[in-house]
Prior knowledge:
The chain is of the alpha+beta class. It has two domains: 3-21 and 62-136 and 264-277, CATH 3.30.1330; 138-259, no CATH class. It has eight helices and nine strands.
Amino acid sequence: MDSKLVARVVEKLLLKATTDLPEDAVHALQKAAAREKNEIAKDQLHIILQNVELAKGKKVPMCQDTGTLTFYVKGRSFGMEVEEGIRKGVKRATEKVPLRPNSVNPLTRKNMGNDPIINYEYSKDDCLEISVIPKGAGCENMSSLGMLTPAHGREGIKKFILKTIAEKGKNACPPLVVGIGIGGTSEEAMKLAKKSFLLPLDENNPDKEAGKLEQELLQEINALELGTMGLGGSTTVLAVKVSVKPTHTASLPVAINLQCWADRKATARICGDKIEIH
């Protein structure tokens, strides 16, 4: 894979991800605005939708916080040229889109531009797939990990999630998308929660138990009435995405990652000379 090709694709991918909100998120916001009874919340939702339209039309970022750039790369094989291409593409996009240089040394706070986080997954597909989630700090800072015990059970999982969102949700720029990772180990649960933002908002988890939990949490979180921007109203979350992985018999890790209303994401597929971005 040519690193120059990857760089060009990543630059275009970041332009799309930061300026063009996916249709599933736009539709969810439109539905929320249509059913909202709280006038303040309804006004806020209409402002958000106007912002989305302006960003797409003018090709400018929809939020001043263009986020930490988390990439998911999937393919048959990877060479250093893939990572080199991603880093070159990020650097170009930072200058041209433009993206705010958000990465700093955590100890000195010295600015480091934009340092992407890159995850790799092998598949039998001959094509290279690159997805990105630009994640703002306001919602990322509200992440939580609960190392529960099996004795907590299903109700304990729900109680932990509801308590966390009741305490932190209004600080994450709602209406939210809630990513939940259950199982694995502590770090795997957090990865599951973050990666769930790549899933379509309007599709329920095909796993019966996970899908049922998604719907229960959607109703119960919205019943908290934190509302748009934490100002009250009937829509606190647009969707709940639950991802589950086998865990140790003595463990029950539960990770919560909150995404703000700007559920930014984009995916590119490189198949030879053919490139698709959506």
